């Protein structure tokens, strides 16, 4: 019997990310509102990315001998295995690596440059995250 993977929290993260993206595009750059929406967008991006990785890890679990094996996988390897098992294609893996690299830079730089880079990735990221959500939901 196969257990269903719940994507409810991922869906909430995606809605928050999408709303933050909509709102930041409606306000003037440099205003306090812009900074509020940018901060929300960056945090939502990080949370959505984390959820995608955690759920994808659950999705690839049946391809491994044990949960312990999957739990040891570095984040990028989760996406490599998703490609290996034909869950995502090679171009998607490259995009996910770009998102992961962006997220990893947050530990070094929470400044304007990082936020602008994240903002430039968000539109494509939302599409990829929604596609990954559908993949995770399908049996």
Report what the structure shows.
This protein is elongated. The chain is mainly alpha-helical and 139 residues long. It is 73% helix and 0% strand. It is built from six helices and no strands. It has one domain: Four Helix Bundle (Hemerythrin (Met), subunit A).
What CATH architecture would you give? Up-down Bundle
Q: Which fold name corresponds to the CATH topology?
A: Four Helix Bundle (Hemerythrin (Met), subunit A)
Give me the strand/helix succession: HHHHHH
CATH superfamily: Nucleotidyltransferases  domain 2
From the spread of the alpha carbons, the general shape counts as: elongated
**Spans of 5+ residues with little confidence (pLDDT < 50)?**
none
Output the radius of gyration: 16 Å
Q: What is the CATH C level class, in words?
A: Mainly Alpha
* Helix-residue proportion: over 70%
SSE topology sketch:
Layout: H1 8-24, H2 32-60, H3 67-71, H4 75-84, H5 90-104, H6 112-137
Helix pairs in contact: 1-2, 1-6, 2-4, 2-6, 4-5, 5-6
């Amino acid at each position: 019997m196969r257990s269903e993977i719940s994507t409810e929290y991922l869906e909430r993260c995606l809605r928050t990310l999408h709303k933050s993206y909509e709102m930041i595009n409606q306000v003037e750059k440099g205003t306090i509102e812009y900074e509020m929406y940018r901060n929300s967008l960056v945090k939502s991006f990080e949370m959505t990315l984390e959820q995608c990785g955690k759920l994808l890890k659950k999705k690839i679990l049946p391809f491994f001998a044990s949960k312990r094996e999957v739990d040891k996988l570095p984040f990028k390897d989760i996406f490599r295995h998703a490609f290996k098992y034909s869950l995502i294609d090679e171009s998607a893996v490259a995009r996910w690596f770009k998102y992961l690299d962006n997220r990893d830079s947050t530990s070094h730089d929470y400044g304007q440059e990082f936020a602008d880079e994240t903002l430039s990735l968000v539109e494509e990221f939302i599409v990829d995250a929604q596609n990954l959500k559908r993949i995770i939901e399908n049996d």
